[in-house]
């Protein structure tokens, strides 16, 4: 049997209507689906029911173990499957180790292809009525990985002048992130929003200020997209959704 072709597929932010047509076609054809923790059940329900589903969710402290397990599965099924879908939430090449997995696949002789997905970094604010750029308010944005390994190595001064910041995987370290940004010049009263379970029926939005987050006054749960910048104020006029305040 020939070596399986592996597709690194982006599942989008959670809503099954936001996956691409190509992603849907590959899910319907896949023999093996290796999926991350944040891939929704609604998206998995669209896949070939005869496929083998392998859960590759990573909890804190398990990242390297699970990543090695993923590599092991890819090698195990290379001669046993025709199509392997490595299904990642959002876009596979944005903070999802997609580049590392692609490198592994090519090094081991697989044919591999990336299928981009809608990143929650872009989709979550848009769906919440928060434009990342807005004439006269914001002309730039940046996306930051918010887990401990990344934020400890960041040059926070580089983010002081960027209009809008989007932090992924930053709930646990939110007070450190906010405090670091304030220390390098962002105002304490700058508005922020946490978009929890974006694009799903469980979506909830918490608005606060950077200072409140730094003082640990804002309670939120993962997964959430953390948006920082004056564009958050625009939500009041761009959506009719009620927002949940920092005390919620």
How does the SSE layout of this entry go?
Elements lengths: L4 E6 L10 H9 L2 E4 L5 H4 L7 E4 L7 H15 L5 E6 L9 H10 L3 E5 L4 H8 L13 E5 L2 H4 L12 E5 L5 H10 L7 E6 L7 E6 H5 L9 E5 L6 H4 L10
Parallel strand pairs: 1-4, 1-5, 2-3, 2-4, 6-7
Antiparallel strand pairs: 7-10, 8-9, 8-10
Number of strands: 10
| The CATH C-level class name of the largest domain | Alpha Beta
Number of helices: 9
**CATH homologous superfamily placement of the largest domain:** Tetrapyrrole methylase, C-terminal domain
Overall shape? elongated
Write out the strand line-up for the largest beta sheet, numbering strands in chain order. Answer: 3-2-4-1-5
CATH architecture of the largest domain: 2-Layer Sandwich
Following the backbone from N to C, one meets helices and strands in this order, namely EHEHEHEHEHEHEHEEHEH
List segments where confidence is low: pLDDT < 50 over at least 5 consecutive residues.
Answer: 242-248
Q: How many domains in all?
A: 2
| Largest sheet geometry | 5 strands, parallel
Name the beta content range. Answer: 15-25%
Find the structural class using helix and strand composition.
alpha/beta
Q: What is the end-to-end distance?
A: 57 Å
Please characterize this protein's 3D structure.
With 248 residues, this protein is α/β, with parallel strands linked by helices. The protein folds into two domains: 5-115, Cobalt-precorrin-4 Transmethylase, domain 1, CATH 3.40.1010.10; 120-238, Tetrapyrrole methylase, C-terminal domain (Methyltransferase, Cobalt-precorrin-4 Transmethylase, Domain 2, 2-Layer Sandwich). The chain has helices spanning 21-29, 41-44, 63-77, 98-107, 120-127, 148-151, 174-183, 210-214, 235-238, and strands spanning 5-10, 32-35, 52-55, 83-88, 111-115, 141-145, 164-168, 191-196, 204-209, 224-228. A five-stranded parallel beta sheet has the order 3-2-4-1-5, sandwiched between helices. It has a five-stranded mixed beta sheet with strand order 6-7-10-8-9. The longest helix has 15 residues, at 63-77.
